[in-house]
Write a structure and sequence with these properties.
The complex is a heterodimer of chains A (166) and B (431). With 166 residues, chain A is of the alpha+beta class. Chain A is built from four helices and three strands; from the N terminus they run E-E-E-H-H-H-H. Chain B is mainly beta and 431 residues long. Classes of the chains: A alpha+beta (166), B mainly beta (431). Strand 3 of chain A pairs antiparallel with strand 23 of chain B, so a sheet runs across the interface.
């Protein structure tokens, strides 16, 4: 749900010359995000707003991914995964099995992103699951694990993968 | 209570030593490894750390599980080995560094003056109960600094400590309470997440007071537009260039409150953001004070029932005062000539009750009597304003307390009309 349009809805000059700026960003799903800041007197508010769009896109993805991760951690179902397993170990194994079939290439940015998103959980939640004694191998698996979540989200967005195919 | 010494020049005889850190013998017998010291200590023990102690670890997962208990913590104190005086570690003279790996700090501990350098992420009280108190410490983190616990039973308090994100890091918060008082937070490059505080699932409480944030990378957002519970309050903090605060998108995402926060030596602006809108200091439209409270309600505000509330003033008053609040707007109301009506804007007063002074009461008599009552215009005003508005309407709201007692009175402005802007004079008139 990327940002599709943005506008400045407030540019209010203050007594010391600085300005309260309020931006409003609209996403493809109809949601909006409002951001307020105090700009220097000569700040180019429009340029700042445009630069911010990519950051907001990234935050929106972070937020969405975190929701998937939370669901998986809590043992809740995620679209595309139909858990019948009862333990986290079983679910993680199932997930990895599924991921192995779906993912065949590494994208550096994606890995970097995955590392950033998942690391806190992976270290604690999956340490004992992956049975890897080598840290780097383990880290790679963790990164892959999250990459699958990201790919799954994209797949759902594009309606490419039906739940039955998983 | 026992005393222990940590110094990389010690002989590891691990002798339980005296309480005088200026005695050379104590340092001769010191332990040179922090994990060994942790294994030796019991709740209530004191560990003196040489301010020039340098220790490098490269374990896969380096965890410092300090062994105190919640009511009797272990204390780690960085001192000068010669004088015995308390002295913080410095990068050039002392540090505890975990190379290329995460550094985990858990348990119940008070640490003074130590310098922790993580090679990757740093976890403080992560996924466990804990109470971590840091005084005059320094934390260097290249990636993320996690303060998280799914069971909420953690508090991390850093006093006069410096936190430096050296590459792309940010705070990730999950449960618990993070308090930072004094000291600084800085980031030498852009944060990947573009936010200083990222809130995860269980939410968090963040309190920053007197913290120098001017070193945070330009245009970083203070906090994610959380859908999770979060309470974030910054007081007297120096902000970074281009700081931003997003609107809160759910009622349980809590408040983001900045009080007397500014990038420079200006007006020390305030800003409060929650589900119902935002209130910010405005110096372009005001009465005799050089600022007003600019209230901007979101679409979530609803007439009579769900206002954007802002505490205008809190003060001592004798019993049963009359309290008047002035405000101005660009004909934003539904009343005559664009006047705000009493289901759209009103004031509320909390006051001590005359029969039971321990019990406060809330006077909402300035609001329409019931949700079904026909709204009436709030009073017009002829007070003078410095303003730059178009088609301005000046109004006032007044309450005379009855049945009250002398004591602290709190006055709230309530803006319940959605997507509306009103400038309110915080200088409440008491008569």
């Amino acid at each position: 749900m990327p940002v599709i349009s943005s506008e400045i809805i407030e540019d209010s000059k203050q007594a010391d010359g600085r300005r309260w700026i309020t931006e409003k960003h609209f996403t493809s799903t109809g949601q909006d995000r409002t951001i307020t800041y105090l700009a220097e007197a000569k700040a180019d508010a429009k340029s700042i707003m445009l630069k911010r769009v990519s950051n907001i896109d990234q935050q929106l993805i972070d937020q969405e991914i975190s929701q998937y991760i939370n669901k998986i951690e809590k043992g809740e179902n995620v679209i595309g995964l139909k858990y019948t397993e009862t333990t986290q170990k079983e679910r993680a194994s199932k997930f990895l099995e599924w991921a192995k079939e779906k993912i065949d290439e590494e994208d550096f940015n994606a890995l970097r992103y995955a590392h950033r998103v998942i690391d806190p959980y992976s270290e604690k939640q999956i340490n004992g699951l992956l049975a890897e004694t080598d840290y780097e191998n383990k880290a790679d698996k963790v990164k892959t694990w999250v990459q699958k979540i990201k790919d799954m989200k994209l797949a759902m967005d594009e309606s490419v993968i039906a739940a039955e195919e998983v | 209570m026992a005393y222990w010494y940590l110094y990389d020049g010690g002989d590891n005889t691990n002798t339980s030593s005296t309480s005088d850190p200026s005695l050379a013998a104590n340092w001769t017998n010191a332990t040179d490894d922090i994990l060994a010291v942790i294994a030796l200590t019991s709740a209530g023990d004191i560990v003196f750390v040489a301010s020039d102690h340098t220790e490098t670890e490269s374990a896969i997962s380096f965890t410092l599980a300090f062994g105190g208990v919640i009511g009797n913590k272990v204390k780690y104190i960085s001192v000068n080995r010669t004088t015995g005086a308390v002295e913080a570690m410095q990068d050039s003279t002392g540090k505890l560094e975990c190379v290329g790996r995460d550094l985990n700090i858990i348990g119940y501990v008070w640490i003074c003056g130590m310098n922790f350098v993580s090679g990757d992420d740093m976890y403080i009280a992560a996924n466990t109960n804990g109470h971590i108190l840091l005084d005059s410490c320094k934390l260097s983190v290249p990636d993320f600094l996690y303060c998280e616990s799914s069971n909420h039973e953690i508090e991390i308090k850093a006093i006069n400590s410096d936190i430096l994100f050296t590459t792309e890091g940010t705070f990730r918060l999950r449960g618990g309470i993070l308090k930072i008082i004094g000291g600084s937070i800085s980031s030498s490059v852009a944060m990947t997440a573009t936010t200083l505080f990222t809130v995860i699932s269980e939410g968090c409480t963040v309190i920053l007071k007197n913290v120098d944030l001017s070193g945070v990378y330009d245009n970083t957002t203070l906090i994610t537009a959380a859908t999770e519970r979060s309470e974030v309050r910054l007081t007297r903090c120096k902000m970074w260039a281009g700081w931003t605060v997003p609107d809160m998108t759910t009622p349980y995402s809590g408040d983001v409150i900045l009080e007397s926060c500014d990038t420079g030596n200006g007006y020390n602006y305030f800003l409060r953001v929650n589900f119902y809108g935002r209130t910010q200091q405005d110096t372009a439209n005001h009465k005799t004070l050089d600022f007003s409270a600019k209230m901007v309600s979101s679409a979530n505000a609803k007439e009579w029932t769900e206002p954007l509330r802002f505490k205008l003033s809190e003060f001592y008053a004798t019993a049963n005062p009359t309290l008047t609040v002035e405000y101005i707007h660009e004909a934003q109301g539904s009343g005559s000539g664009g006047a705000l009506q009493d289901d759209e804007f009103w004031i509320e007063v909390e006051y001590p009750d005359s029969t039971d002074e321990a019990l406060g009461k809330l006077d909402q008599s300035n609001r329409a009597s019931t949700i079904l009552a026909t709204p009436a215009d709030q009073d017009n005003s002829t007070e003078s304003w410095t303003e730059n508005l178009t088609g301005e309407v000046k109004q006032k709201s007044e309450i005379t307390i009855s049945g009250g007692a002398a004591g602290i009175h709190t006055v709230w402005a309530c803006l319940a009309k959605p997507s509306t802007t009103v400038y309110v004079d915080p200088d409440v008139t008491v008569s």
